[in-house]
Give the backbone structure.
Amino acid sequence: MADHVIGVDFGTLSGRAVVVRAHDGEELGSAETTYPHAVMSETLAATGAALPPNWALQDADDYIEVLRDAVPAAVAAAGIDAASVVGIATDFTACTMVPVLADGTPLSRVPQWREHPHAWVKLWRHHAAQPQADRINELAAARGEAWLPRYGGRISSEWEFAKALQLLEEDPPLYAAMDRFVEAADWIVWQLCGVELRNACTAGYKGIYQDGGYPSEEYLGALNPGFARFAAEKLSPQLAQLGARAGSLRAQAAAWTGLREGIAVAVGNVDAHVSAPAAGVVDPGRMVAIMGTSTCHVMIGSELAEVPGMCGVVEGGIVPGAWGYEAGQSGVGDILGWFVENAVPPAYHERASELGVSVHEHLAELGAGLEVGAHGLVALDWWSGNRSVLVDHELTGVLVGMTLATRAHEIYWALVEATAFGTRKIIDTFAAAGVPVREFVAAGGLLRNEPLMRCYADVIGMPISVIGSDQGPALGSAMHAAVAAGVHADIFAAAAAMGRCRRDVYVPDAARASAYDQLYALYLRLHDHFGVNERDLMRELQAMRERGAR
Amino acid sequence: MADHVIGVDFGTLSGRAVVVRAHDGEELGSAETTYPHAVMSETLAATGAALPPNWALQDADDYIEVLRDAVPAAVAAAGIDAASVVGIATDFTACTMVPVLADGTPLSRVPQWREHPHAWVKLWRHHAAQPQADRINELAAARGEAWLPRYGGRISSEWEFAKALQLLEEDPPLYAAMDRFVEAADWIVWQLCGVELRNACTAGYKGIYQDGGYPSEEYLGALNPGFARFAAEKLSPQLAQLGARAGSLRAQAAAWTGLREGIAVAVGNVDAHVSAPAAGVVDPGRMVAIMGTSTCHVMIGSELAEVPGMCGVVEGGIVPGAWGYEAGQSGVGDILGWFVENAVPPAYHERASELGVSVHEHLAELGAGLEVGAHGLVALDWWSGNRSVLVDHELTGVLVGMTLATRAHEIYWALVEATAFGTRKIIDTFAAAGVPVREFVAAGGLLRNEPLMRCYADVIGMPISVIGSDQGPALGSAMHAAVAAGVHADIFAAAAAMGRCRRDVYVPDAARASAYDQLYALYLRLHDHFGVNERDLMRELQAMRERGAR
């Protein structure tokens, strides 16, 4: 019975392919390929030239490596015949943008442009377009652009229009040479089937596509005269719904992957959004949090509501026929990783090694042993800015309460808590806007950090359900492949057959939850002070940082 | 010519003896003894029992070890005949309090009390008496006590009355058994010459002795009925001026030290205050900063002024016949030491080792190479509370501006800067109160950190002069020994003959000073937010910390 499908999840540092049995969702084998160039945030690998602060680039060719390595390796690991695979689908980080020629060739592959930083992929966490995002927001607010409330009132510097405007203003010749500015989610599909399409999900969430159109030429021209025809000229006009078939695997991609030419290739998708059906979530009111280096929160709603600071609400953005809400925290696992890399003294490394555990595990174990508040610390989880609900990537991290008795595991734990508080703030903001969260479903790599998950349950004060797969996004993609290949009629049927969720795995401890209410109140005071009332303080710090770095 | 004197400086972790030629101040030899029990802040060494947060105890017998070890070792290092020593003087950390019996025996030496934490020496940085300090301040303000403005409007939890009231309220039987509560500065002199005296310096700065008397019994009784007769019963009534002869070396102390019985023993003194004459500073308007684990600022003034948040102004508190001003920062080198111990990842340790420098030196070198503000950080230097100008030891450290690109040496440097901003805030507060600082003279262990000293000059925007001795306090004590022994007529003559100061060693860089003005403005905003307008936030954190630790 030839009903195998493949989902490929393109993450921040690697791509992961999973072979799935299409009728029941059983995962048969997987493989991962690390991007050779990882994330370029300090220097451009091609030239060694230093990059300005807040840049984050990738090499599009690294994504092709995943198709060449991880896909055949997953097939081998699954022990199946590659000929039995009937469809492939992909999901990607977003908003991750590739500047390309008309045939899809990345400008970074063109010798003339290779030394230009703007020729390379701008990863989602490229945060250097904040000045452009500020202007986008100010002008939209001043003009009362109807699309602005769909994004919580603020467009992020991470998104397409901010990134494009930065490219135009900092490298006009390259902008002129660029035929298309394409989401990596769509670019990889283009590579697989040779068809240039724009998936409804990123078009809506990251590309300001609302009610059938992009922002007007008048508005764009007011931002910058050279930007007036950006949407008309640099973006594909072909919108495509999630779950649809984009095309058929072309010969070159069949050669890369070892799969049969002509099998179904699904429309591109986003890692977070595709995780909802993977957890069996295709109905309203259940928030799926994909917790990894960053956290993305997605939720289906039957009604349109305007939630302050949400990333966006898009019709058909998660499943066809319903509103998809998205919110996010730009730094979560990233912050903990930063801490372990940059702020943990040798004694902890040695002790973790003696215990045969990772430094993360050692710190989390010690942190979880603390009574709530016993470290005397509270932090703001803004090392990578704040996506929801403040939508400001010039916000930065804060740590309050250190004494000479403070120890590294206490700070680590305060950072874990701060990310949990950030999640609670998002849940509270949705509820206040009339979109209550009735179930919290967790997915992503941080599920492995069990003390962290218990902390989240205590902080948000509700049970946490857990996706039944280690490979949520790839499984979700595989479902879309199954729909594109016609194995299931639609994503609802696919989710019912293939989705996996374990209910109420982490249940809050009442005493700790109550103590966290107090600590959360202090978090909120800091949040509003630095994020609302005195937001200029961090802006000034960032301005000094940028002047100092020049 | 028998004109040798010895100064012994009792610091936080060790005592240091220096042999000095009395007629010209030449330092002939020195030796140091580390206290065997160091600082007990987590457990009581005698029992292994855990101590509550914010405690800091010492063992008085460790101070005797310094007399037995460091003094003879310094004489040997100097290559002189011990019989040529004509006087000895001591200085101590303050307010460091010893509870004793009528004969001076520390209660910690009495088997019945040995297991009581309150029987041990409370080190200056014991910060657990903040609730008592709060009540002392509130009641004094409500009653309009005349002495309160002499202490900048707030009595510190580090000082005698707060520590004594905590002892009374937490261990009443021990309070009843205690015949005297004596400054370590006076206790060590008592051990040397058998005479119980109270030096004018600590009596004034730490003991609220003003205009010839202590706070009234009525006031003390209103704090706690059992406290009414504290000053009358538990403190020595014998006041003594700095530079006076306390008595003669007794036989047992001669046996400990190897010095001649009967030589002059000077009145006890405080490490910071005694450093001023060591730098030749015995005249108004020259601030001497003794920069070490903490920093103490002392300055002589011809007039009485009330400076908000100063530690105190005491007549004869530095030199006889003039007002002595004191201010301080509770954590400076301590904070940097905390950082190196608790927050520096292995790679820096390895690199420092490769370079053959200390981790401090490595971090300071990297930090000094940054453009001002290029790290994007600003910190509040309150790891050990804030002595001046906020006088609140429940204030805690703050760090703002971290991103995923922040590195350990940048945070180290932000901490260096924060301590410099704290110094500038003190200088500005003195100036605003009509006590301008016309010269800044640095002394203490942090002089060895040259990048830090350059940073201080840039931040305060004035040249920094430097004491001409590595052993400022001990040299200052030796001067007092010379006065007590009659070699010099008074401390002014001794300072002229023996003091050492190098003028304008560090001169500000105009561009960096100007950039620091901007960063200092941000520091002030954080300072006022957390220290004035929203002071309760850190109090709540500390309250949670204490509840959690129980």
